[in-house]
Amino acid sequence: xxxxxxxxxxxxxxxxxxxxxxxxxxxxxxxxxxxxxxxxxxxxxxxxxxxxxxxxxxxxxxxxxxxxxxxxxxxxxxxxxxxxxxxxxxxxxxxxxxxxxxxxxxxxxxxxxxxxxxxxxxxxxxxxxxxxxxxxxxxxxxxxxxxxxxxxxxxxxxxxxxxxxxxxxxxxxxxxxxxxxxxxxxxxxxxxxxxxxxxxxxxxxxxxxxxxxxxxxxxxxxxxxxxxxxxxxxxxxxxxxxxxxxxxxxxxxxxxxxxxxxxxxxxxxxxxxxxxxxxxxxxxxxxxxxxxxxxxxxxxxxxxxxxxxxxxxxxxxxxxxxxxxxxxxxxxxxxxxxxxxxxxxxxxxxxxxxxxxxxxxxxxxxxxxxxxxxxxxxxxxxxxxxxxxxxxxxxxxxxxxxxxxxxxxxxxxxxxxxxxxxxxxxxxxxxxxxxxxxxxxxxxxxxxxxxxxxxxxxxxxxxxxxxxxxxxxxxx
Length: 476
Hints:
The chain folds into two domains: 29-95 and 426-466, Urease, subunit C, domain 1 (Roll); 97-424, Metal-dependent hydrolases (TIM Barrel), CATH 3.20.20.140. It is built from 16 helices and 20 strands. It has helices spanning 12-21, 119-128, 144-152, 176-182, 185-195, 202-215, 236-248, 260-268, 285-293, 302-311, 320-325, 328-332, 355-367, 387-399, 403-409, 412-419, and strands spanning 30-32, 40-50, 55-65, 68-74, 83-87, 91-95, 97-99, 131-136, 160-163, 167-169, 196-198, 219-223, 252-256, 273-275, 298-299, 372-373, 437-441, 454-459, 462-463, 465-467.
């Protein structure tokens, strides 16, 4: 595998500081709240999608008041004075999308570019693409909890954030091993230890869980698999210690998995969610029912593996949402890769993290009763915030879900998981729920790509102003 040559020692400290602290400065899609107070809102004469059943009911007026859905009525059954009216003719109204694996703080450039993350730009891109809620399963910046609060208070504009903060792993495990592979040695020594908390003993596991609980994270994230395959894997004893301590602290934890045994070990230690599907092997038939019996949902992330494979074979063929949120020069920067660059450290791409294997396993598990949730794993390497959730929904449909089922995975089912047994606050178009809504052209239950043709993104009852990267720049 090609590594970037080391610079002279005299600039190491400066380079490290600049690499970690500077924002990329790349132009991104923009979003803004309109000035002035929010009035009552009516989306008039719109087809409302019931994401639970996939049924689309036309000719409805949807009233929004004080940030929540106040009424859903047949079109024309009430007077509209005093409200802002949005014409919904020819469009569908559904809840805002939920990305159950969206990294807020990571970069978006090629693996070899070592681009620093830009959380502000990522939040804008999520929201522009109709993602009104994001579960960030790993954030090494130390700012995740504060960022979550700033968004909740509207001090920053972005989707509602659920965060796991800094993930847990074994010494030298994922993502430490990955960082050491793809970052040159002159910087990986600094970055790698900061990517995750490395724990081995029961005491270290307890201390790490206690620290995350004190930080106020929503979940704990644990790397259970080997990534790359030669990396060490966390022991079942350490997993049990993490699970026991999380249960004592009344916290849920999610497991980064790759194999059937990873999934079983995580489930037996008390994991609440499988992050990534079983992608490194075909699940044996006699294990399908065993996995289903745990009652744990799975976020499959088919697109991320497929994207890496596609990235070495040709340039990005952008979907509409990528054209709107990612500058053309960034899209063009992924191909060709530098001379000598490869993913050989992963082993055979035909057998490791294969999208086909992941999709096949997903459908077999779903038929057995496993709930599938939608997540993009936006993390750089061409997995762009917001846009890649739309790619993931297309992957779910190609794997065998109907468009309506894929939409449910990115709305109601994800909202139900996040609610943790309590009534949902968002994730469906229902009276009383938070008015995080998406108005799109046509019927996405017939063609999930319609979700990219957005008329309005409505956040907490307020239609946001959206501006594509393709729009002409205006003076400030």
